[in-house]
Write a structure and sequence with these properties.
Blueprint (H helix, E strand, L loop, with lengths): L7 H8 L4 H41 L6 H43 L6 H23 L9 H32 L3 H17 L39 E4 L18 H14 L4 E10 L2 E8 L5 H5 L1 H8 L6 E6 L2 E10 L24 E6 L4 E4 L6 E4 L6 H12 L5 E6 L15 E3 L2 H25 L13 E6 L7 H13 L5 E7 L4 H4 L9 E4 L4 H8 L3 H4 L19 E5 L11 E3 L4 H14 L6 H6 L12 E2 L5 E3 L8 H7 L14 H15 L4 E3 H11 L1 H4 L4 H10 L6 E2 L10 E4 H7 L1
Parallel strand pairs: 8-12, 8-13, 9-10, 9-11, 11-12
Antiparallel strand pairs: 1-2, 2-3, 3-5, 4-5, 6-7, 6-15, 13-14, 14-15, 16-17, 18-20, 19-20
Length: 755
């Protein structure tokens, strides 16, 4: 039987060409399959977009970081900061060692064994080494567990960092493409990988729980959460020991036996229990170069109980007198900062910073001292009336000099020095515009500026200044230093009291100093009327008169400070203060920076050479329309005859300068003649002798040797009259020269200024 063979080619030829119906059907099938693929691709792309969006949202929300990891991160940051502080302390010791070596080399080059700079650096080095030793005793820093607030803050920081990184990266990428388009091709593979990574299926992870309590039950309230509104954390939050933790049968022991914070807290609690002082808790213990500092809390009453028992506690601690220094804390009525002082808390206080002439404005704050805790005491005297009280030896002169050193560096201030008994600002005299010593001079100065203050009150509106005088070099402020106020005349005290009432807004202020704060010293009960009040070593009555009847209970203890003696400075220049602009009134002890006399003289000469200011003409003109106080006017009888002369006359500025032997207002050069020649010769002999001042008798002898034909027969009075014709004024106090404490004579720069 024959077999049939199939030939596909022949079959196709026999079939002939395809019909239109078959072609259309196949095309529809292709379209259907394409639409199906497109639909699937769109669905997949949509899912990919959802995955990418979920992953990005989760990444930006830091869902990949649970609380456990963030808590570890926060603790590690704390540990690093603590280690950094310790390392920085060691580096500081190294830096101070280097500076001390340089200071010693410099002193050796000057032929000296040491210098003030070297001594200051040595004190800073000792304090730094003490801090290092204290850290060694304390051991590794204790790092507290993370709080919920800290973890939330860390998560927010991570979120902000990620958003910022994306924005910055995107901007940088676009900028790069714009500059170099070829980067687009290079970035395509990375973009493809990034899309694949983001579009993978994303599973939301559950937030993990921290396997330990964020805040142990025993942790003080300070660390449970940050205060609302960014407030300062509560003082006394780091509790070291409470009275319930004291060992049974333990007895008080001296403070020198305490080596750790735990031992110090135990020592304080035992001593307090023995003296029936209701201290129930000790916290925030720190070792200081001068002793210990901690915060204590009383369980009943107020910290006044600590103040009352301070002497007995000093015995328990075996500390020197005034070694227990409590400072009640206003923010926590039951608490006080207790300082247990074994050394000098101010030994490492910085010295006086150099301030160039005209480097400040009267509205600028400047540093005059340091607190017992090491914080700076900074203030501005613009519009601030002040009273500075300290007993004899309490450091009033040094305090006023520290204030005057700041204001004489101002480019918009006139400094006035009044002292009816002593030498006032002494070494800063060259930088002072007017120095008044007699009652006549002091009364005339006070009346002049009282009238000027009243004139400025009417002038401010015309000048568009508003409610307060605006100081400038053209319209300067005036700062009057009035030392030994109790020794002034009754009229001067009355003028001073009136100026207190009207001078503030006109920037004509008085800083008065007195040995007492009671009305028997001041002539009136004004101690609590002034804005700024400071008290140094004094009687307890002065503390209450200046700071108020309850001030001792609040911790103001200047009466416990000791004034200086002939051989021991003790607590001279230490003060408690209220009314510092921008600072809360706290019972804190401060030490005022004391500058050497030679330094102050040099600063004064620099500021004199830079030029001293005079009152503006607008203020001088405004004085003409001011009525004088009735008590300074002459009285007349019914017939119009003078019954009593005016006790003081209102002078012009030039008359006031002449009365106080001050340098006349700036004018043209001194004309040729005998007066000018006397000035020139005086300057010449001082320059040859390499001195900046001479007593009148010494100066006359020097010019007689220099030009015997002119001065050989001249006497002292004739020589002074000749210099007075040159408007050099009368001899002024010169400060210590040889064995003489404060002789009178002439200064080279004042005479040179006349030429």
């Amino acid at each position: 039987m024959a077999t049939e063979v199939h030939d596909p080619q022949q079959a196709d030829q026999d079939a002939g060409p395809p019909t239109k119906e078959v072609s259309a059907s196949r095309l529809d099938g292709l379209r259907a399959r394409g639409d199906e693929h497109t639909t699937k691709a769109k669905a997949a792309y949509g899912i990919q977009k959802q995955n990418a969006a979920r992953r990005l949202r989760a990444w930006f929300a830091t869902a990949d970081l649970d609380d456990w990891r963030l808590a570890e991160h926060v603790v590690e940051q704390k540990r690093r900061k603590a280690q950094h502080r310790d390392d920085e302390l060691l580096r500081e010791v190294g830096r101070l060692n280097g500076r001390l070596a340089q200071a010693r080399v410099h002193a050796a080059r000057q032929g000296e064994e040491t210098s003030p700079q070297a001594e200051r650096i040595r004190g800073e080095l000792a304090a730094a080494r003490t801090r290092v030793e204290a850290r060694d005793v304390e051991g590794p820093a204790n790092v507290l567990p993370s709080t919920r607030k800290e973890i939330d803050r860390a998560r927010w920081t991570k979120k902000a960092t990620r958003v910022g990184a994306v924005l910055a990266g995107g901007y940088g990428y676009l900028q790069g493409i714009f500059v170099e388009p070829g980067l687009l091709l290079l970035s395509l593979p990375a973009a493809g990988f990034g899309w694949w990574y983001l579009s993978r299926p994303h599973v939301e992870e559950q937030e993990g729980e921290v396997p330990f309590g964020l805040t142990p039950a025993s942790l003080p309230a300070t660390f449970l959460a940050d205060p609302a509104g960014g407030a300062t954390p509560i003082v006394g939050g780091n509790v070291v020991m409470s009275v319930e933790q004291l060992p049974e049968g333990a007895k008080p022991y001296p403070i020198r036996n305490a080596r750790t914070a735990q031992q110090l807290a135990e020592c304080v609690l035992l001593a307090a229990r023995a003296e029936n002082v209701p201290i129930v808790e000790v916290s925030d213990v720190t070792r200081q170069p001068w002793g210990w500092q901690c915060v204590v809390r009383v369980g009943e009453g107020t910290p006044e109980a600590i103040i009352d028992k301070a002497g007995d506690l000093e015995t328990r601690f075996d500390l020197p007198t005034n070694g227990v220094r409590p400072q009640p804390i206003k923010a926590r009525r039951a608490c006080a900062i207790m300082r247990l002082v074994e050394g000098d808390p101010f030994a490492t206080a910085p010295g006086l910073p150099y301030r160039a002439p005209n480097s400040l404005s009267i509205t600028d704050r400047f540093r005059i001292g340091t607190s017992v805790g090491g914080d700076p005491l900074e203030l501005s005297l613009a519009g601030v009336m002040g009273l500075w009280v300290a007993a004899s030896g309490g450091g009033k002169t040094g305090i006023l000099q520290a204030l005057a050193e700041g204001v004489t560096a101002c480019r918009d201030n006139i400094t006035i020095d009044l002292d009816p008994f002593g030498d006032g600002l002494e070494d800063l005299g060259d930088a002072v515009r007017i120095t008044a010593r007699t009652n006549e001079q002091i009364e005339a100065v006070l009346l002049f500026f009282l009238v000027m203050a009243k004139g400025r009150a009417r002038l401010r509106a015309k000048l568009g200044m508003g409610k307060k005088w605006q100081a400038s070099s053209k319209r300067p402020a005036v700062t009057v230093f009035f030392d030994e106020l109790p020794k002034a005349s009754a009229l001067a005290k009355r003028l001073f009291n009136d100026l207190l009432l009207v001078g503030r807004k006109e920037l004509i202020v008085v800083e008065a100093a007195s040995q007492g704060g009671q009305s028997s010293y001041l002539g009136a009960n004004i101690a609590q009327m002034v804005a700024l009040a400071a008290v140094g070593p004094c009687k307890v009555e002065d503390t209450r008169s200046v700071f108020g009847d309850g001030s001792v209970r609040e911790g103001y203890l200047p009466h416990k400070l000791s004034p200086a003696t002939a051989t021991d400075p003790k607590d001279a220049g230490h003060i408690f203060i209220q009314g510092v602009p921008g600072m809360a009134n706290e019972p804190i002890e401060y030490a005022i920076h004391e500058a050497p006399s030679a330094t102050l003289r040099q600063l004064a000469e620099e500021r004199l050479e830079a030029g001293l200011l005079d009152p503006d003409q607008d203020s001088l003109d405004a004085m003409k329309s001011v009525d004088l106080p009735e008590y300074v006017e002459a009285t007349y009888d019914n017939d119009g005859n003078i019954k009593k002369d005016a006790p003081v006359e209102l002078l012009t500025w030039d008359q006031l300068l002449r009365l106080c032997d001050a340098q006349p207002a700036e004018r043209g050069p001194l004309e040729d003649g005998a007066p000018r020649q006397a000035v020139e010769d005086s300057v010449t002999v001082m320059e040859k002798a390499a001195v900046d001042r001479m007593k009148t008798e010494t100066l006359l002898a020097a010019v007689q040797d220099y030009d015997p034909d002119t001065y050989g027969e001249m006497g002292v009075d004739e020589f002074k009259a000749l210099l007075k014709k040159a408007e050099a004024g009368a001899p002024i106090t010169l400060g210590p020269i040889g064995e003489e404490k404060s002789p009178r004579g002439f200064k080279r720069d004042r005479l040179r200024h006349l030429l």
